[in-house]
Amino acid sequence: MEENVMSYLDPERVDQIPPGVLAYIGDAVYELYVREKLLKNKLNGGRCDVDLDELHKEAVLRVCATAQAQALADMETFLMPDEADVARRARNIRVGRGPRSMPVLDYRHSTGFEAVIGYLYLLGRGHRLDEVMSKAFDLTEARLTESNRNPKNN
């Protein structure tokens, strides 16, 4: 298998990558993480007949901008100073407004979340990346469980 194509990037080089590009990479990395986690949970539950439509809907609930924005807000004290700086810079970039159905702040904060994921991925900080993604996933799961218990709050 080919070596990671981004393995040549050193920390100084990653710091020069625009936050929007970090978010672009982070979006893909986090979506794959969530899909793998959901599939693993289904297979560990003894189910081999996984419904792809259901799996897709479950993934969308966890990777949507609102879920990512909430996870970032909940993780502010969990982030290291360099990660928090990346999130701040990404939240403040001038990009399109995002989908009209989504609050602008959710879109901006989700961009910050995705940029942190992209930053850690490109630096090759696999252990820290796993910690951040796992914490975000767990926080999102807790929110989804709570909203299922109290549907009036949706």
Describe the structure.
The protein is mostly helical. The protein has helices at 11-15, 19-44, 52-63, 65-74, 81-91, 104-123, 126-149. The chain has a single domain (12-140), classed as Ribonuclease III domain (Ribonuclease iii, N-terminal Endonuclease Domain, Chain A). The protein has 7 helices and no strands. It is globular and about 45 Å long.
At the fold tier of CATH, the topology name is: Ribonuclease iii, N-terminal Endonuclease Domain, Chain A
Given the C-alpha coordinates, what overall shape results? globular
Which class of secondary structure composition applies to the elements?
mainly alpha
Share of residues in strands: under 5%
Reading the helices and strands in chain order gives: HHHHHHH
Tell me about the largest β-sheet: none
- Broad CATH class: Mainly Alpha
Tally of structural domains: 1
The level of helicity is over 70%
Radius of gyration: 16 Å
Q: How does CATH name the architecture?
A: Orthogonal Bundle
* End-to-end gap: 45 Å
**How many DSSP helices?**
7
- Looking at CATH, the homologous superfamily is Ribonuclease III domain
Number of strands: 0
What ranges have pLDDT less than 50 throughout 5 or more consecutive residues? none
Overall average pLDDT: 87
Set down the secondary structure blueprint.
Elements: H1 11-15, H2 19-44, H3 52-63, H4 65-74, H5 81-91, H6 104-123, H7 126-149
Helix pairs in contact: 2-3, 2-5, 2-6, 4-6, 4-7, 5-6, 6-7
Keywords:
mainly alpha, 70% helix, 7 helices, 154 residues
